[in-house]
Amino acid sequence: MSHHHHHDDHCGHEAHAHDHDEPGGHKDNLYVRIDRPNVVALNADKEGPEVIKPWDKRLDEEVFIESDADDQLILRVPFTGSVKLRAVLLKTGPADQTPSKVLLFANENNLDFSDAADKKPTQEFAVAQGREVGEYSVMPAKFSNLTSITLFFPASQGADTTRIYYVGFLGSWSERKENPVITVYEAQANLADHEKVRGTEGNFSAPQS
């Protein structure tokens, strides 16, 4: 496994060279964009942030959260900005403690178990058993302006409890405010609007109104 050295964080200058061959690697891993102190787990033996781990800890099995009263579990994950999600990463189990599926809800900040049972998820996936991290590619259009995501695990694959070791997210992130790029675009857009209004005045009297 010696060729995996470059995953270490200290060689950030190398990251751009490996964009394409590190599907779950640093470039689009949203770990640093998760508002970890405000991650909440419902019906769990811990708070929730424990399973939001850095990429290099994704296979760690010492720290996990487990469902409490039954095998249902909800994890609410807020982001520090606006996220365009590409995939959800999960390490669960072992064996029949693996959830049967995961239901994803975009921007549902206060979802609880009664809501989750009634509401249609934004997307859902069957979860396979295994010791590796599973990557679940979402429909980007449905998760393109994400400020939080809620993961609902409705049942285990037979055990009394569901266990989650690692939850990660791949995608791109943008700040919600004070982003100079947005300011530039706005200035250009306004300019174009003014020109259009002047140039078309009297020609087309806005038929769509």
From TrEMBL:
InterPro entries: Galactose-bd-like_sf, PITH1-like, PITH_dom, PITH_dom_sf. Belongs to the PITHD1 family. PROSITE patterns: PITH (PS51532). This is DUF1000-domain-containing protein. Residues 8-28 have a biased composition (Basic and acidic residues). GO terms for cellular component: cytoplasm; nucleus. Residues 19-189 form the PITH domain. Residues 1-28 are annotated as: Disordered. It comes from Heliocybe sulcata. It comes from the Eukaryota.
